[in-house]
Design brief:
Structural class: mainly alpha
Largest sheet: 2 strands, antiparallel
Radius of gyration: 22 Å
Shape: globular
Strand order of the largest sheet: 1-2
Strand content: under 5%
Oligomer: single chain
Number of helices: 19
Amino acid sequence: MSRRGTASLTPKSWINVMIESSPARFALTVFTALILVWTALLSLPFASSTGEITPLADALFTAVSAICVTGLSTIDMATHWSLFGELVILAGLQIGGIGVLTLASILGLTVTHRLGLRQRLLAAGDSNPMRMGRGVSESQAVGLGEIGGLLAAVATSLIVIEAALTLLITPRLMAAGYDFWSALWNGFYLAASAFTNTGFVPLQGGLDPFATDIYLLSVLGIGVFLGAIGFPVIFALYRYVTGGGWRAHKRLGLHAKLTLTTTLIFVIFGWLLIAGLEWNNPATFGSESAGQTAFSSLYMSVMTRSGGLGIIDPLEMNGSTMLVMDMLMFVGGGSASTAGGIKVTTIAVLFLAAYAEARGYTDMQAFDRRIPNEVLRVSVSILIWGATIVLLSTVVLLHMTGKPLDIVLFEVISAFGTCGLSTGLPAELPDAGKYVLAATMWAGRVGTVTLASAVAASSRSRLFRLPEERPIVG
């Protein structure tokens, strides 16, 4: 399109052109614009409890952390913000949790009572960014014809799960001494923070008073787990349960099976390692009973996957445990979920490719299904992009702060994986360091596959192939 034609476009026409030409770049634009708007709102004097203007670096960091559902903070979340500020943060984490384009599609469906092809493609791209490329096969976890059902599942699960969590958390807070309205408000805040895998805690003292409370921690853990498996999996489980149970086994697709299996493997893997490495550490689990140690380590394994509602100071852990948690945070949760990281399905595909290569198979297989090689190429790209982002951010922050590698690496991976577990380093960072960590959160939440799709949207195919020559690898 010519410059003259572009300049004459109305805002609506410009948006339509952006959606059709590059949905990934449109998503990045909207996501970044939301962060800027939230930064402006949190910078207002009445957004803070003291009526003072929040410094730009702290407002931007909090806005990114909320929209990217990370949970890291440079200020005290329990005392700094006014009611208006808390409402802005809650709205941000809800929008970030369900996805910007998904929310737009839900609002459009609510207003017009119909879902056009453009809205279906937008929502489909939010549930699977690989759709934003060209020539994508429709053998997807959720087909275009099922997008309306997926949107309904997203809205329903958000409302029902957060309401149920709120009802379960509120009585416990009342028993702890909070009045009804304070318990209800903080209960809803914790419910939203858990399901969206954000990790913000509005309570003074955080979760320290409830560090051994099996009831409250179990509720929070369930909320985080449900948010981390992803809306497509929740949708698939709903169809599975309502479609005949075990007799409808084939209705549970490959993506749901792969996500649930790999998630459980990583939860158990993290549970056993954290318990085994910390059971005799007097600063963490050394003084607890065997049962409490088993429960606390399981809870931390779930939270390390992206929840961020920690009950143990990472600085008190052994270095080996922090490294295990680094790995869990880097992997993250399920695709199209409220969790971050490179996603469990990415790791599953890479392991399946290695297994297929070791057995001499031409194709990757799982649950009697063949996985196309294009999924492997995207998985490798995600791993490389993610590792590169973590490496660059770690080097920059190491140079800025002079802190030990294990602490800086922990914070960077927590930011990239939008986990929210912290050693307290963000509050000590200079403004430049806060911007670096905010950019890491942005890159982790937007998703490396979306970044790759945005770059690849303008790629052109070649009409020729170069002569083949194989380098030596390994």
